[in-house]
Amino acid sequence: xxxxxxxxxxxxxxxxxxxxxxxxxxxxxxxxxxxxxxxxxxxxxxxxxxxxxxxxxxxxxxxxxxxxxxxxxxxxxxxxxxxxxxxxxxxxxxxxxxxxxxxxxxxxxxxxxxxxxxxxxxxxxxxxxxxxxxxxxxxxxxxxxxxxxxxxxxxxxxxxxxxxxxxxxxxxxxxxxxxxxxxxxxxxxxxxxxxxxxxxxxxxxxxxxxxxxxxxxxxxxxxxxxxxxxxxxxxxxxxxxxxxxxxxxxxxxxxxxxxxxxxxxxxxxxxxxxxxxxxxxxxxxxxxxxxxxxxxxxxxxxxxxxxxxxx
Length: 311
Ligand code: PMP
Fold this sequence. Notes:
Layout: E1 5-8, E2 11-14, H1 25-29, E3 32-34, E4 37-42, E5 45-49, H2 51-65, H3 74-88, E6 93-103, E7 114-122, H4 132-135, E8 137-141, H5 162-174, E9 179-183, E10 189-192, E11 196-201, E12 204-208, H6 217-229, E13 233-236, H7 240-245, E14 248-253, E15 257-264, E16 267-268, H8 276-289, H9 296-299, E17 300-302
Parallel strand pairs: 8-9, 8-15, 12-13
Antiparallel strand pairs: 1-2, 1-7, 3-6, 4-5, 4-6, 5-17, 6-7, 9-10, 11-12, 11-14, 14-15, 15-16
The protein binds 4'-deoxy-4'-aminopyridoxal-5'-phosphate.
């Protein structure tokens, strides 16, 4: 996770100097919002996939949490992201913008505090295991439900929301599974701990509707590919047993990319191997992020080459 430079409150500084004081309320109470973005190598140098959409969601997350103003515009954060990648000289990396309550806020209100903004980048970006795209994952339905939309704001990437993900994924790992599937408070399938979920049945794609999930940018990318390919997508309530009947199930997210599930709750999914439509979408996704797809120009933000490994 070591990078040389990090952007913090408008300045590029040595990553080793980005320490946060222990008494920072955002750290104690999970009051921050973040994004998870990836840059990929292309034949025109590093390019960030769907940067605008990620930064717009970053600003939306801050507003949903209740920040009245976000200190930097999408345009400023776009430039800062490119600058951070160039400063570190990376071809490919994971990008983590973070807005957190950096000062004040000890009386549990946002208005007595001040937001700080950082953009960190790092290179190890494999999230669900190196071999997971081919092998497929074993998942179980968690005993922890996804947060009630009246209690937590699931459309925002709020730091504190991820306590829910930690509870579920730690439980699943300790039970020997790779990933947890969370149901919504009414018992319908919502999403995974850091990824959205699709199933394939009779050649159609089905995905839980947006009420209690994070509306993933990869989910949107997959539905766009499906429309391009003429594959129908049904968004609505998904029951747990629909997962058991599916021909294929896959999860998708910026970090996870597209990964098939080979087993849910000890029941084999389809043939037990990553299915044909999942593999097709994985291939199209790989082409899109690396600049080899007709949609790549509208989705890739080219960063330019690293002029010098420094600022
Ligand atoms: N759901 C949750 C809870 C997530 O953390 C993520 C990762 N950001 C996703 C879904 C997928 O979102 P995206 O495709 O935008 O990365």
